[in-house]
Amino acid sequence: MTARRKSLLAILLGPGAFWITLFFLIPLVLVVVYSFLERRSGGGVLWSFSLDAYVKLFSPTGDTLINDFMMILLRSLWWAALTSFVCLIIGYPLAFFIALQPPSHRTAYLFFVLIPFWTNFLVRTYAWKFILNNNGLLNNLLQALGMKRIALINTPTAVLIGLVYGSLPFMVLPLYASIEKLDFDLVEAAQDLGANYVRVFSRVILPLTMPGIVAGIVLVFIPVSGQYIVPTILGGGKVAMLGNLLAQQFGPALNWPFGSAIAVVFMALLMVGVIFYLRGDAREEEVGL
Amino acid sequence: MTGQRGGIPGSKLLRWGKRLLWANMFFSFFFLYAPIVILVAFSFNDSRLGARWAGFTLKWYGQMLESEAIRIAVRNSLFVAFVSTAISTVLGTMTAIAMERFRFPFRRTYDGILYLPVIIPDIVMAISLLAFFSLSLGWMNNLFGLQGTSSLRPGLTTVIIAHVAFNISFVAIVVRTSLRELDPDFEEAAQDLGADEWTTFRRIILPLIMPGILGGALLAFTLSLDDFVITFFTTGPGGTTLPIEVFGRIRRSISPEINAISTVMLLASMLLVVVSQFVQRRGSTGV
Amino acid sequence: MSEIYDVELRNVTKKFGDFTAVKEISLGVRKGEFFSLLGPSGCGKTTNLRMIAGFEAPTSGEILLGGQPVSQLPPFKRNVNTVFQNYALFPHLTVAENVAFGLEMKGLAKDEIRRRVADALEMVRLPDSGAKKPHQLSGGQRQRIALARAIVNQPRVLLLDEPLGALDLKLRKAMQLELKELQRQLGITFVFVTHDQEEALVMSDRIGVMNHGKLLQVGTPEEIYDRPANRFVADFIGDTNFLPCRIRECQEEVAWVQVGQSLQVKAACTQTLAQGKEATLAIRPEKIHLHPPGSEGSPGEDVFAGRIVEAVFMGTDTRYVVELEPTIQLVVRFQNVNAAAERFREGENVVVSWQPTSARVLLS
Predict the structure, then answer these.
(1) Is ipTM beyond 0.90?
(2) B36 Cβ under 8 Å from any chain A Cβ
(3) Residues A66-254, CATH architecture
(4) pLDDT mean for each 10 residues of chain A (289 residues)
(5) How far is residue C357's CA from residue C351's CA, in Å, rounded to a whole number?
(6) Is residue C266 a contact partner of residue C256, using CB atoms and an 8 Å limit?
(7) Are residue C54 and residue C89 in the same domain, yes or no?
(8) Does residue C163 contact residue C147 with C-beta atoms inside 8 Å?
(9) From the candidates A119, A153, A267, which should be mutated to test the interface with B, based on the most B CB atoms within 10 A?
(10) What share of chain B is helix, strand, coil (3-state, %, to 5)?
């Protein structure tokens, strides 16, 4: 590369790289560092090495092997998986349906899927609080119909509804992108060779749309596992997820090292998942899939 | 799936399958829109208690418009959004060009790093910035001996910095798609005709990727306006944005005023969607 | 010969990682010449063109324009213009703005630019298209605008990268003649890249045949056609019969070779080859004459007896396959000068003959 191009590259890449390094990467590194430091009462850290934070995170309380904090972490991951699954169940047929429509209709359908995607997440979550609240719309409706009230608010169910609601568009869009690329000739070829509808789906359609499924799951799982808004608004103080825990440690509980440790473990688990996925992908390529 | 197929001679399974697809579609859209419709409808409800319909009124909108807190929050939100969008669009576009038109060592690694802000849960980024600003502002205060009211504190500036930090990636992704679709022959033709790199960029590349840049800017703007978690942890006194204001009210009590604010925010978002679709459509036919 | 070429490549090699696209090529294009680089896809001809234009830098070797080394010059500083394969007309500019682009870069006055653009559009016979946008033009029209955009700058050398590839056959043939005429009028040196050997033969003053990154032969169309340097060139250009043979004697430009069991052929060769060496005899189908049995052909010719195994009517001529020995067959293209009743038929015995200079001895 000529000197001219080198300086051009530096000008183009430099400012963005500087910003991301200083205001994104370094803060993350800082969190890792903090997780190995001592807590300072009143907030912040003391600059002395300590494994207290990790000890607190991993040490069992009383009889249970997994303490409350690990519980919250694992529960968040489990709910993220659940949410992804539900979104997939609802979203895949929807994406499939849209792909089957004539091209002119497709744009309209996608537009209507896109709108909730662009609207404020807080607002959309609040809408469910309005509905599920103790004297919210649903309960008022039930009362008017002479039925008993349901206490849905501040329960895991409410949180899950909110999570699915917020994540659905994130699942539908990558799914649609993948399904839309499907060459329908392949479906016909499979049928020609004797595959019934179930087989066509499991052996042709599903594998070929797998990239979309994986993308959708990644786009739902990761944000949901770290959700803060939904468990706060729809779960009150009663249903805590990872997001709440982190916010609490960096907020009222003023235990920054502990919060950092939780964040580090969380990120580590996510990275393990990503690496597993990449490995699986590479192995597929070796086999020639 | 391009084009349409006439349809396979019907089997019962196929017909039920189709019915299921239609049913799921209706359910999905109902699920997606019912809460929104309810929210909007009850913003006109003449009752403090919210969920029981007591008559049509516009008073909540009036209350909202008169609220000083809301006005400040909106002003702050727009300020942060405009400034952070401007910065991140420029930086994101430059990054996109570097990634798509240059080859350099560790390019793949940087590619991965660019995707991190998109992938990472916002709470993690939020707390990391909280820690970072606390530390760095503290250092700078010590260094320059600033105290009290003249000391550096988190506020709209730190929020803007945070928003740019994640929006660079989003803008870069959108602009990169545009660049990838741009035939490299155009740039070579321009250089062949005597245009140097800057002129080629100005006269050929920039006009042709403008729809992408605008799309990226619109995305950055929306993400900035809507952001709650990261803003919450990087702001300070006097740095209230609209989502933060709304969150506070939600925590306190349910009031149709929140419905009114929400409705306005929804309308604003929908307007942005329409504008972005328009920009995309115009971009592809103008070329 | 120390003439100054308009374009000169000296020992140019281009590698992309492990792959060598161009291997030590040296050639010179003379001023005002229509020079074609001919070869199959992937042979490196486009890479050469791009190096001349400045979009790639040679891994080793020198490129000179008008005697000046230019390897370090970026494309916008070279007095060379390119007509791209897909035209690369700027979609957001009008036709006139496209054509004016290079002149704008030179900083010419607006009036001058307007005048020259009008002249260029006139020259490619699209005088009223200035206000249109490229997507409003047909493929053939776009091709001519791409041409106008390049020649309006009066470059020293014009590079054309398979510009006629996207056109349908009839249009293509028309454009071939138009381009040739244009080049003659303008006097600009053309370097033309194509994989179509007929196109190269029709248009070029000289042709450079390439394969696998190597330059195999440079010469006029007649030289390339009548005196191919090796098997690839003979095979790539036109049709050829290839017969394995062995050298019996070879001196100066004449060789005696044995083909098959008993055929002794007098042929032409360009190098002195050792006795007993295995080689290939190449004869073009149209250079072979057919006679009724018993004929002795014309004086000095190689004459052999054979039998017609196949006869396919092709319109202007007939394609015969003649068997001389059980394993030796020749494809013969003989013009249908005589009436149908008098033409040769399958199964007939014939006599074939050709001039010794039409049979060439080649090493692969």
Answers:
(1) no
(2) yes
(3) Orthogonal Bundle (1.10)
(4) 83 94 95 89 80 81 73 90 94 91 88 85 90 81 79 86 92 91 81 78 86 90 92 86 90 88 91 77 52
(5) 18
(6) yes
(7) yes
(8) yes
(9) A119
(10) 80, 0, 20
